[in-house]
Write a structure and sequence with these properties.
Helix content is 10%, strand content 52%. By secondary structure, the protein is mainly β.
Length: 202
Amino acid sequence: MRAKVAVAAVALAVGAVVLAGCGGGGGGVTPAQATLRGTVLNDGTLAPIAGATIRVGSASVQSDANGVFSIQAPVGSQMVTIAATGFQQLQTNVSVQDGVNQMGTRCLQPVLLAGRGAVSGTVRRGGTAAGGATIRSGNATATSRADGTFSIYNLLAGSQALTAVSADGLATGSATATVQAGTKIAGVTISLGLMPPSPPVF
């Protein structure tokens, strides 16, 4: 009788060990972690966005005053979400490798206000792309990228004049666009020419 009780006790002990091993309490493997770095900019002005929230899984950080961020992420394919007040949320899938991963620049589009739209296009000077040009329409401003492309947001719906000044301030140009509320129209080209000389002062 005592032998049967001992055997039963051993069986229960073995069963308990097996169940403990199947419970997942500390038995999982933690995925390798890597670093994601990047910069968040305003898609129109190309100014840095401070305080943008960057999320990867349950981890989150905020961009600094220069729009720069660094966040830890598991190695593998990861969905990165970037959000900031007044801008449309951006989601992008990133293949995270061991070590430090550079995401480069990510631009957030401003939210369009009621009755307003956006315009995108290209600034050219002498047939070549004009990067760093300042584009204005009413109170809205934008800056062209190195390839001359630009996007300007929150223009009043209707026919709107756009003006551009080159980065060196020596050339200017203009164009007209028909803005549609709630959407972005594309294909506007602004060609820059040399500013006329100032009249002589007597």
